């Protein structure tokens, strides 16, 4: 069975690449006509489950009200979300106790879950108050990319961190990304074109992105994975290289931090709704000249992953949409 499954996976990859190369432009136009990728924003509403009152919803163009926002997309995460949130809230509370200037929020985006994810999320809102933990309900499943986009657009932080609901990356690793962003932003504010004497300028005003990376674990992963899974991984990396260009070794790690200025540019333009939105983020960073720093983080495999080999055709399809959409000018950039 293992050998037959390997053959099926390889067949899926080859067929998908053939579709990508031969038919993407034609199919894209039909897709564009049927599914307009212009975002129609429905008002996001935060509800306080204690008072049952609606809480005013911020937008990415509003001034920052918190130091950091943690954006967590969740789809059917009833069982994995509590452990990850407990670890996250413990870290944030301990840091806030040590540093009175440290303010935070956690934004959970329930991406149309059919299990108890909504209940779990609102339990944390009740425990930590709606000022520190907020929930966005998307109603139906849109995809991880759309969930993160929505969370980014309605967060209050100077820094915005996306992280997965499974807790695969240790939350305190955010300090590695934070340190890099601070170093770059301070240098830019001091030596850049902006007047250093302008006290109104903040780190959040400098577009910078820092990506958590598992590339340092690649050698070990290659040794433990089956040969055909390594083949699939390498094949996907080649397609990503063709679509977004070189420079980032691990585009898919779900641990990425952005300054508010960077998030404003990126997430008002993101169109891919599912797995390959990470690649689109890389593409847009390069397009806008936003510096990206890839930083090694601690990562562990958590049971229950929603990515499987049968997702590959959809991922390749999204990369085809992105490549054709931007290169033909069908996807307009908002600056």
TrEMBL record:
Keywords: Endoplasmic reticulum, Glycosyltransferase, Membrane, Signal-anchor, Transferase, Transmembrane, Transmembrane helix
UniProt xrefs under SUPFAM superfamilies: Nucleotide-diphospho-sugar transferases
EC number: 2.4.1.117
Pathway named in the protein's UniProt entry: Protein modification; protein glycosylation
Subcellular location per the Swiss-Prot or TrEMBL entry: Endoplasmic reticulum membrane
Superkingdom of source: Eukaryota
Domain Glycosyltransferase 2-like: 69-181
Organism: Liquidambar formosana
Family: Belongs to the glycosyltransferase 2 family.
InterPro entries: DPG_synthase (IPR035518), Glyco_trans_2-like (IPR001173), Nucleotide-diphossugar_trans (IPR029044)
Keyword set includes Protein biosynthesis: no
Protein name per the record: dolichyl-phosphate beta-glucosyltransferase
A Pfam family this chain is assigned to: Glycos_transf_2
Catalytic activity annotation: a di-trans,poly-cis-dolichyl phosphate + UDP-alpha-D-glucose = a di-trans,poly-cis-dolichyl beta-D-glucosyl phosphate + UDP
Gene Ontology biological-process annotations: protein N-linked glycosylation
TM ranges: 6-28
Any Gene Ontology CC annotation: endoplasmic reticulum membrane
Molecular function GO terms recorded: dolichyl-phosphate beta-glucosyltransferase activity
Membrane topology summary: Single-pass membrane protein
Family annotation (PANTHER family): DOLICHYL-PHOSPHATE BETA-GLUCOSYLTRANSFERASE, GLYCOSYL TRANSFERASE
């Amino acid at each position: 069975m293992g050998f037959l499954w390997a053959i099926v996976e390889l067949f899926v990859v080859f067929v998908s690449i053939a579709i990508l190369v031969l038919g993407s432009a034609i199919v894209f136009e039909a897709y564009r006509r049927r599914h307009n990728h212009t975002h129609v924003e429905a008002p996001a509403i935060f509800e306080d489950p204690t008072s049952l009152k609606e809480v005013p919803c911020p937008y990415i163009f509003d001034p920052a009200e918190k130091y950091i926002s943690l954006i967590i997309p969740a789809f059917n995460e009833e069982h994995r979300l509590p452990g990850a949130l407990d670890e996250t809230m413990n870290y944030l509370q301990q840091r806030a106790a040590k540093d009175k200037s440290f303010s935070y929020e956690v934004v959970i985006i329930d991406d149309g879950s059919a299990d108890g994810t909504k209940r779990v999320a609102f339990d944390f809102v009740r425990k930590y108050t709606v000022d520190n933990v907020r929930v966005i309900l998307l109603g139906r499943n849109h995809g991880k990319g759309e969930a993160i986009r929505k969370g980014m657009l309605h967060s209050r932080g100077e820094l915005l961190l996306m992280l997965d609901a499974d807790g695969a990356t240790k939350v305190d690793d955010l300090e590695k990304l934070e340190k890099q962003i601070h170093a770059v932003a301070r240098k830019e504010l001091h030596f850049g074109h902006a007047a250093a004497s302008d006290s109104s300028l903040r780190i959040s005003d400098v577009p910078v992105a820092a990506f958590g990376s598992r590339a340092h674990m690649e050698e070990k992963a290659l040794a433990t994975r089956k040969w055909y899974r390594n083949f699939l991984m390498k094949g996907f990396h080649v397609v990503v290289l063709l679509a977004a260009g070189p420079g980032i070794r691990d585009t898919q790690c779900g641990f990425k931090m952005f300054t508010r200025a960077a998030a404003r540019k990126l997430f008002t333009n993101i169109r891919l709704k599912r797995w390959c939105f990470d690649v689109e983020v890389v593409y847009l960073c390069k397009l806008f000249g936003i510096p990206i720093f890839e930083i090694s983080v601690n990562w562990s495999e958590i049971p229950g992953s929603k990515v499987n080999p049968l997702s590959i055709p959809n991922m390749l399809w999204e990369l085809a949409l992105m490549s054709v959409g931007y290169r033909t000018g069908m996807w307009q950039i908002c600056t």
